[in-house]
User: Fold these one by one.
Assistant:
Number 1:
Amino acid sequence: MVASTGNSLFAVEWLLLIFLIVCAVFVSCARDLLNAVVIFMSYSLIMAVIWVLLQAPDLAITEAAVGAGVTSLLFFLALRRVDRIGHSQEKKEEHHD
Amino acid sequence: MIEKLTSLFKGFRDWVEGNGPRPENEGMPPEAPPPLPFTLKPPTAHSARFHELTIRERRRLWLESYGGDLFSSLYVGIGILACVLFVFVLLAAVAELPPFGDPGNPANNEVVQRYVERGGRETGAQNIVAGMILDYRAFDTFGESVVLFTAAVCVLMLLSTVADDSSSRTAPCRFVQNSGLTALKPVQNSGLTALKPVQNSGLTALKPVQRDDAILRGVASLSIPIILLLGCAVVVEGHLSPGGGFSGGAILSAGLILCANAYGFDRVHRVFSERTFVRSSSGALLAYAVMKGWSFFSGANHIESGIPTGKVGNILSGGLILPLNICVGLVVAGTLYSFYALFSEGEI
């Protein structure tokens, strides 16, 4: 399933794959949407490493830039729009003023 | 753990049965499950009439009283069974796939052979992926860029606050806070299709608070030049090393977004305004269309551009790949950054 050259690399690949599945499950299980986005980011990062191990550096760069970077940024922005993050802190500051 | 599993199962069952979102998540009072259509009490075995019934009538009565529960549990059970079966079918299909990297795989046909053997000579690109997507299959990449550009145009039309007369550029945020929900309220403006910002008196516009964050600024001042330089390198060296227009453009846009968050959108606006976005994106797309559409009329199979391919490995090699990469990078960087700016501020 996964290209492997050495035993240690093989173990790392399995570790990454298991972690990938754990991340994928916990993204859908996370109650807090902010946590879900962060876990999704780590999922993309692991996927990028796996792309490198599969000798697809082009995909790795794109996955890291788009999956872990821009997509998560847009998710954070959407969460801020619907007041899921940054709301309570701003309220506190208003009370201070 | 068990509680979590049961709550997970309950959520799954709610979702399967269409009871809406998890009540706990929304902070709403828990919704009572709808009463089943069959709420008859089953006749007990002790009642006098029960003994007079035949077996068939007893079965009918039992179904009438317990049928709803039976149906719902059967429904859930069959749903889970179907999912598990589907997973097994997919896993079996994966197990039947040819091994990774086997030379006898059906994907290793004459097309791959041609790309590998003659790609470097024909396209002049050291990175054979760039040679494929920007020379052999450049028209597909053109379609991808057009899709991104169209998405950006649609977002611009929906979220932009620029009125028809460009002088009346008003408040950047037209999201109106509406009892906890952020509603989008486009207002039709007497025949004009322009969307005017809605300004309700008692409601505060949702402008993100611009805070003087020393840590963010310090990190940003160190990392933004590196990020932008890396993005430019990935775009320009697309035909030599992994990367290319799309990934480089995404890196560039990430740098711009970081800059906008650390120093405010005005700072980015000086370099990358809406006018720059429109001109660079449409200009890059047009240049791409001219460069690659021309090869259709010339009858070439997307390869012979007339430009010498140069020495493989030099920065000025690969014929049209370098300008095409720059075009794609411009479109992608502008589009992704404008998505962020439009969603965040309402304008680029």
Number 2:
Amino acid sequence: MQMTHEHEQIAETTRKFVAEQINPHLKDWERDGMWPAHEVLRAMGKLGLLGIAKPESVGGLGLDYSYQVAFAEALGTCDSGGLPMAIGVQTDMATPALANFGSAELQQEYLAPAIAGEMVAAIGVSEPGAGSDVAGIKTTARRVGDEYVISGSKLWITNGTQADWVCLLANTGNDTSGHGNKSLIVVPLDAKGVDRHQKLDKLGQRASDTAMIFLDEVRVPARNLIGEEGKGFIYQMQQFQHERLFLSASIVAAMERVIKDTATYTGQRKAFGKPLLDNQVVHFRLSELYTELEALRALIYRATDDVVAGKDATLLCSMAKLKSARLARELTDACLQYWGGQGFMWESSVAQFYRDLRLHSIGGGADEVMLEIISKRLGFVGKRRTY
Amino acid sequence: MKALVSVKRVVDYNVRIQVKPDGSGVATDGVKMSMNPFDEIAMEEAVRLKEKGVVSEIVAVTVGSAKCVETLRTALAFGADRAIHVVEEGEVQPLVAAKALVAVCGKENPDLFLLGKQAIDDDANQTGQMVAALLDRPQATFASKVEIAGTKATVTREVDAGLQTIEIDLPAVITVDLRLNEPRYLKLPDIMKAKRKPVENTTLGDLGVQAAGGLKIVKTASPAARSKGVMVKTVDELIAGLKNKGLL
């Protein structure tokens, strides 16, 4: 992936927005467990930040995915991990399937306002009984005349308390065992029968709101179906590739910052007569972690190149997701240790990212799911086993 | 009304400056470069004047290496209509830059020439004044407010004693200060549109300007490191310490 002047300028506008419009408010949002999604996304929409790789017909810029990766990396300069994730839901988790397979009418109604920042979107896949095990969802959408009647519940829904619509995965066939009975449907969250008052209390990412959504006989027009009925699982698996690449790219800057903050802190903090950083165990460890981070960045860029070239990037996107999440845990834990007591303080930057980045091994497909995908793709197990 | 805005590529204001080991200058290899922040303010002012209908065309100009075209692209994303690049790979001293800009003025005949009061790399604060002198036109430096009416500009300047307001005849040179405006965020569609706007290349030779300047940089060095402070517990201790250093 080559960073052109335009990539750099897009990143610059993003970093400036983060520094001036997001970071000054994060302490309040962390405390409140809520960010003003409509306000922030509207401002981002005006700058053209929400539809970089989306078609121009819906107000996007129509650029290739490498520009989106530059945006995701720059978003990582947020002082908390909750915001890049919440914004990523809008740009890379709730909207790719609608952009790729939704009807023109449905795109104008829901995608164009999401790109303009006038509507807040959420993605509804996980349920109380099914998270990474997407096939096991229980929510059903019955076709009745010109409508779908939806019942079920969705859990851990980012932006869930304030989103205007959710891209919902539901069972549309009677056979609930396989993949061929799932469909993606756009559900407006002001519809009758939607209850989403329960805001969840989380370990980290506290600046973004997360909800449980109940759907009780919710009726939506049949034209809110994205693409074809029964193809929802495949669409969602494709949508996951964007989500996973975005998530990987969005935490590189945060990890870089944790290393630098740790070097700054240990460079000033003296123990046993010299700065902590002067101990070989500390500066060697930071150098090792920085090296791993650069290797991760190279992997993300390689996966991006494959996405841009239109190749199947499932293997590399899964590897990037796995490695970024694992490294985030290792790195924040190692760095927190060198901060000593100060690292255990709630307000230290290392503690912030220790909490916030922990989610990455769980959300968007857990590490173990990534390993299963990678194992299958490499032919170690499954139908395509070659060893 | 046509506005010409000159922009300079400098080391980004966020970068911690490092002097080259041999003292020949500041290290720029692999260092993030940006548009001089004062020139951003000049660009912003030109765009606001265009939005108000005062200015009809904005031309951005720079004097410097091939890489400076990126700075021109940034100016085009701000809202310049076209750009002129005076390509010069070597060092460009203020008088050389001023002569080149005067030559560009000769071709473009702008009504308004806007630029930053100084660039944050060498802080010379000379180019604008030199351009005005060489053009033999009025100048208003350190502008914190600019109002254009007909063929006159009313400019509020930041001076040591406070604010001074002057009226000058156009065409004129205005150098801008920090408080004139707050530059906008570059919108992504504008960033992409800038790629397609025209950039005209020329050289000092084409403009009949000699590349060599009259200044010789003898040495570049980092400022002396601050010595460590001492914490005092009482006012008496503070006074004693100051007396001890011969400061009281």
